[in-house]
Specification:
The complex is a heterodimer of chains A (202) and B (473). Chain A has 202 residues and is mainly alpha-helical. Helices cover 76% and strands 0% of the residues of chain A.
Amino acid sequence: MVGIGILAVLAIAGAIGVITARQPVHSALYLVGNLLALALLYLDLQAEFLAVAQVIVYAGAIMVLFLFVVTLLTAGKEDREPPEDLAGQRAWAGIVSIIVGIVLVALAIKYPGAELKVALPANFGNLQGIGRLLWGPDFIYLVGIAIMLLSAALGVLVLNPPKRERQIERQLAAAARAREAAAGGGAVPKAESTNGKEGQGA
Amino acid sequence: MSATSTMLPEYVILGTLLIAMLGIMVSRAHSTLPSWIGLLGTIGGLWATADLWSRHLKPVLLFNQSLSVDNYSLFVDFLVMIAAGSTILLGWQGEREHDEFPVLVLLSALGMMTLGMSANLITLFLGVEILSLPLYILAASHRDPLGGEAGLKYFLLGAFSSGILLFGLALIYGATGSMTFTDFATAVSSNSPILAAGLMLALVGILFKLAIVPFHMWVPDVYEGSPDAVTSFMAFGTKVGAAVILLRFLAYGFYLSPDAWGPLLGYLALLTMIVGNLVALTQTNLKRLFGYSGIGHAGFLLIGVAVHSVVGARAMLFYLLPYGLAVIGAFAIITMISNGEKNVTIHDLEGLAHKKPWAAALFIVFMLSFAGIPLTGGFIGKFYLLQAALFAHQPGLAVGLVVGTFLGLGAYLRPLQAMFRHESNEQALAGWNVNWAQIVVLVVAVVGTIGLGVYPTPVVHMVNQSANFFWLH
């Protein structure tokens, strides 16, 4: 019980750090702390596979992705926030959420859950148990999540469409210009540099 | 019966969207092939729903009680098919919408159908997410500043409300130890404060999707920035999904404690009806106007849930159909005027009655149905809701409904007034464009709207068969 409390405090501290840190990299590191605390909570609940998957997938793979995006997007950018348009809204949101949080915490302290006295099923929380659940009775949820992820993949296509045709046209035009220039014995290097820039843009 | 045959509409839609993706792959850019596949799929889904309906199924629970197929879910399938089919038709022209448009619409429709069938917490959450994710993308799909704002606002607020919903669901599970709706009321701790806190948080998440008043701030901006066809889908489909899951969640899970949530929903319904219709009065942008009027209509729908009676459930379920038909009809005319280019304001309607009398006449029919004038479906729907409020001895709700209706009437008369104005500006109706797809939507919408107003008996009969699950427990 004490362990759960410490982990909960760590997780919440990490989460608060994510949204209050000024530097995006610091936010990402706070997120690592939050995810690790969650993994330990899973471990405490005897969900070993989930804990390991949490560390490998979230704290490992996804965090690396985050850091790449952060370095690509924010390199040399201003890290100050733009001036607030809606003054007061932030304060009210804070007050309301603190009240809701206090109510929820008070409820949790006043009415603690009863300790579970049932024996866990065999293979609970390990890879085999989770696999049997996901491909057995809970298969429909797996299908639902697959459909959900499909829409995410489609979203990338829709919001970030491959501009293949226009790009090819532009490259062909550049090549034609280069050929003309070569025939005239002129500015070949300039055409090449244009080509190079477009290659980077893609 | 097996899952394959009772879930045929869902399987048809899933198969259709996969085939439509293949269609995008093999066809050249901006072809209408994916749209054709999507349209045929929704017609196939309608056929499968009608076939299942005609077999008079007993309710079945599938996949470890996570999905429930009954007349209720079939009626929802029917509504969702109309919403999805009309959206694909309104976004028909390939140059206007991107190729993936029909696929995303079908994905979102699948989420709505899941919400209609959902019988436990996991499918509830999955349904909400499958419904929302494609809509976030569709809202931003035009990649102009307004669309980006719409998509980002919808995404951030939607994700935040999903978080609150998930927190509530976790507390409910923690208090009852069960995921299945029907176990909540009979659980040992059925009156524990933790359960109540979970219910409140879960209600916030669902009411956000339904755009009930304290959680409605996102609606006007998102409706304004999204493409026209997508806005019509949000106004119809999202409301269907959120309203039906709210009704089933409360009627299955918390039917023993209606005193705990009924008055709360009643006050919210009152607030929503008044605020939505009142703010709609001042709007000049037609999409914002329909956004606020949609908020008002969500308030009307909430009456049916708040009274917690069979009459209320039937009234709510019935009201979804005339509301949705009027939405798709009105948006068909908006797409004709806007031609996908700009946002239509009331001034763009000037002179419509003289230049395009037919379109103006149809627009009047839809506005009158929104307002609840007799001989349109909206009147019958409001009549049933009023009946439900009075049967539940809630005169406050009844008065609120009438006041909201009058305010709404004022809001809908302003575009009509503009239509008959003579001094039309030169720019009005410059981009007027009609294609066959919009005509199909208009015909379906107007036949449905007037048909429901003149002879509602068949649909009333269907609704009576759908919303009878209160006696199951």
